[in-house]
Design goal:
- This protein has four domains: 166 residues, GAF domain (Beta-Lactamase, 2-Layer Sandwich), CATH 3.30.450.40; 179 residues, 3-Layer(aba) Sandwich (Rossmann fold), CATH 3.40.50; 91 residues, Helicase, Ruva Protein, domain 3 (Orthogonal Bundle); 45 residues.
- The protein is 47% helix and 15% strand.
- It contains 20 helices and 16 strands.
- The strands form five sheets. It has a five-stranded antiparallel β-sheet, with helices on both faces. A five-stranded parallel β-sheet has the order 7-10-13-6-14.
- Strand 1 and strand 2 form a beta hairpin.
- The longest helix has 19 residues.
- The chain is flat and about 85 Å long.
Length: 504
């Protein structure tokens, strides 16, 4: 009990120090040093990651001795990879013999026991806390792991502060420049979730690693893949797309690898496959989860050898291309169910990007709706330029299970029934089913309206808008002001006027 109290006091002392520290690098050093002390470890580390891309952006390792601890980086990389995949804390009393990893992977390392706990904040995984001991020292225990999880919980707020980590998490381009750059590629938005997505896309465009886009159907994954290609070093070469969900199973191999004349009935001539057609450029494999297992094996081999063998041929052809894969289903779950090959998953899961659903970026709906309205109105020869305010509020309230594609279809239906000379899309002109849904929305809003004066209701409405923006931006006033298209000074004034303070 005395030892537990001392540990608790030690952690509170650390929290007090961190609360007065603004240097991010120094915070990571202090945390690592405290972990060394508490666990009596031979090494301790803090690994910070980008919450959206899950890529490592900063690592600090502290050791009790000056020797390099052979194999430490390999151990840390594999342990964190295991945690990302299994989404849980890690403990091994003998890492060298641990059957969760390949045999002899850590055979030459002096490290014996290892623990690691995720650092989570605001529902997102922002990093990992790890510690380890040599073989000759007492092993780390389950009690140590439980303490590590509490430790990670304590330090998370200090590590998540936007001002302390924005240098590591933000792309080099300012937000406005990012928004303008990718608007030219058809990617529109300004919400915090969308800005994070653009930062991940920008980072992907600057490297040549394989990318895995994970998100629901209709979120614009192919548009994102095209944008990555457009701003990459391969932009002058072909961009080829294949939808695995739209091709019959018996034709997938021929589509990807090509075939020679006479390879099968109907093969009247040689035909290049899409992988060869994309040579030098980018191949986008949409709905990769739909590939049959035998085809997954062949794709895995093609990626491993950087060559394709057309159906019916015994000669391989070298290729140089970048793969961007996408899936609306969870490849991890499919892999666990034996429906997706583990080795192929790790070949594709080099630079993962989570694509948010439209409901997660509702602030972008007016912008997207106006974009579709302008495009569709022009194609239909109409003069419609906007939506009524009530209709915009309705659009932002919908769940949009079909995401951006459903929104575009909605706008197209609305424009189709709008008179040619009408300037605004009004709710009373909506098709019957949508008009009924809109009426239900108005009734729901009316039931929740408080019986207050107009002045009070307007004040409450403004306060709610400001709070929503601040919460969406983790209470960063500068970003919230940009989101609401106002100045930071006016933002601070209205917060003071309305009595809005950040929760303790």
């Amino acid at each position: 009990m005395k030892k537990d109290n001392q540990t608790l006091i030690s952690l509170f002392d650390l929290a007090e120090v961190l609360s007065h520290q603004s240097n991010f690098q120094e915070i990571l050093r202090l945390v690592s040093d405290k972990a060394l002390e508490i666990f009596k470890a031979d090494f301790a580390s803090v690994v910070m990651i980008n919450p959206r891309t899950q890529k490592t952006v900063k690592t600090v390792i502290r050791k009790t001795k000056t020797d390099p601890l052979k194999g430490l980086s390999v151990i840390q990389t594999n342990v964190i990879g295991w945690m990302m995949l299994n989404r849980q804390s890690f403990l091994s009393e003998n890492i060298v013999a641990d059957k969760r990893f390949a045999k002899d992977l850590f055979v030459d390392s002096p490290v014996g026991s290892v623990l690691a706990a995720p650092i989570r904040y605001g529902g997102a995984n922002i990093g990992y806390l790890a510690a380890g001991k040599r073989f000759e020292n007492p092993s780390l225990s389950s009690d140590d792991l439980a303490l590590a999880e509490k430790f990670a919980l304590l330090i998370a707020p200090y590590l998540s502060h936007t001002q302390k980590i924005q240098t590591y998490f933000n792309a080099a381009l300012p937000e406005n420049a990012l928004v303008q750059k990718y608007a030219a590629a058809g990617l529109l938005g300004k919400s915090p979730a969308f800005i994070e997505l653009l930062q991940a896309i920008e980072a992907a465009a600057r490297c040549d690693a394989r990318v895995l886009l994970e998100g629901r159907t209709g979120t614009g994954k192919e548009l994102i893949a095209r944008a990555i290609h457009k701003f990459s070093d391969r932009s002058e070469k072909p961009f080829i797309a294949i939808d695995c969900g739209a091709i019959p199973e018996n034709l997938v191999e021929s589509e990807l690898f090509g075939h020679v004349k006479g390879a099968f009935t109907g093969a009247a001539s040689d035909r290049r496959g899409l992988m060869e057609a994309a040579d030098g450029g980018t191949l986008f494999i949409d709905e990769v989860a739909n590939l049959p297992l035998p085809m997954q094996t062949k794709l895995m081999r093609a990626l491993q050898e950087s060559e394709v063998r057309p159906v019916g041929s015994n000669k391989a052809r070298k290729i140089d291309l970048r793969i961007i894969a996408a899936s609306s289903a969870s490849l991890r779950e499919l892999m666990g169910a034996g429906k997706f090959r583990e080795d192929l998953f790790y070949r594709l899961y080099v630079y993962p990007i989570k694509v948010p659903a439209l409901a997660e970026r509702s602030a972008d709906i007016p912008l997207l709706a106006d974009y579709f309205l302008e495009k569709i109105s022009q194609s239909q020869g109409k003069k419609t330029t906007g939506f009524s305010p009530q209709l915009i509020a309705f659009l932002q309230s919908r769940p949009w299970n079909g995401n951006i594609r459903e929104l575009e279809n909605f706008v197209e239906r609305a424009v189709a029934v709008t008179p040619p000379d009408a300037q605004t899309v009004e709710s009373d002109l909506l098709p019957g089913d949508l008009r009924e849904e809109f009426s239900a929305f108005l009734q729901s809003r009316a039931l929740h309206l408080p019986q207050q004066s107009l002045k009070t209701r307007l004040r409450d409405c403004e306060a709610e808008i400001l709070r929503e923006a601040l919460e969406a931006c983790q209470w960063n006033q500068s970003r919230a002001a940009k989101l609401l298209d106002t100045t930071e000074a006016l933002m601070r004034y209205r917060m003071k006027k309305l009595g809005i303070r950040r929760p303790e």
